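pasting for ref
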Amino acid sequence: MAEQLRDFAHALLHALRNLMPIIVVVVAFQALLLRQWPEGGLAMAGGLLIVAVGVALFLQGLELSIFPVGKRLANQFTRRGSMPLLMLFGFAMGFSAVVAEPALIAVAEQAKEISAGRIDALTLRLIVATSVGLVMALGVFRVILGHPLHWYMIIGYVLVVLVTFFAPEEIVGLAYDSGGVTTNIVTVPLIAALGIGLASSIQGRNPLIDGFGLVALAVMVPMISVQLYGILVYGGSESEAGNAALIAVQAEVEAPGGLLAMVLELFAMLRDVLPILLVILFFQYAVLRHPLSSPVRVGIGFALVIVGLYAFVVGLKLGLFPIGRNMAEQLIALDTWLWVYLFAFCIGFATTMAEPALLAVGQQAEEAAAGKIQGNVIRLLVALGVAIGITIGVHRIISGDSIHHYIIGGYLLVILLTLLAPRYIVALAFDLGGVTTSEVTVPLVTALGIGLASQIEGRNVLIDGFGLIAFASIFPIVTVMGYAILMDRVAKTRDKTP
């Protein structure tokens, strides 16, 4: 029991550390620029604390249940050496993990409310989860056969750009955001461990070149599937959803509701996590025919995951969503857009530097690269890319430009850099674009975009409010590949110099 309490305290400190950059940036702007305490500030502060407790419980539950069981299953399937089983296991784990992703839940619920129900939250999550499951199966296939990742990415993003031409504008920003939030607190450790573990265990594979890339594929494919879903949902008709729908959102998220609402939310969380439990039990008992080593521990872990998810969602409604909207309203009220751009840049840079998934991937890359890559340099490049991306995304909302042009231009640039970049950096760069947004950053950035779109005259919340997460995913790829190309050219010039 004492060990579990210590682990929970460590997870709580970890969650508070992730929140700290957001708190520092918001307090600095409130104290130095706005010079006022925001309305409902105490409720927001309480919401942030609930978010931290929820994330800590969630992480603790993962450590007790999903992570150890998932790793044991992956090891057992790898030892069997069966490609169909590995691909099936990859699909099942990818699907079940993404269905329970907190950031995706938050974005899907916002999309449902703002679209006045035309976009169904559960359907959206099932589409994204199925996409990631298929990606995991495809990624396992690629690693086993040793196919170069860059051809998968180039062909994939050409498809992304083509689909974007035909997708209704109401779905484009949401589709790209849905891709950006699939790889986060649940999925990154499982996906990265599976890819690197496979590449390390297969003779002739390089962990840096072949092991990375699953995260990148998991970001890309949902962009295509969600846009196809949008084509079906809107069918060329004009959307009636707009700023009026935001009133309903704001009314609903002011408080978590009574006892009945709390019970219903807990059952909803159970529904979210149930697919992971069913996948694990099926593979454990029906395929491997081995019982769980500690079923009570696993059961407690799943209970903590459910309670943690509930606390997380309640904290979002009380804390992070209001902070994002409130800061957008206050900064727009000033005489210049400069402070909006500066806030977007600071939030992007500060939160990314504290992103735990980025720390983990950077460390793994440094170890696999044998001196070619420094983890601290990677973190700075990625944080700079996120800051630039969110700032450009905010400019798009302010100017009212079409997201199609920005997204298509961004990914055409990524495709060009992919052709020019040294092979060792391609898979890592794409993966880094997928781990830049944490479970606390995504809701704040989403709320900031929705707040800006709702406050600027002539903007549609559904069309203009989403998309910031997409920009945060594109530009780290650009900065990392650009840096690698530059360093490669410098090294070749140095070698030629007598």
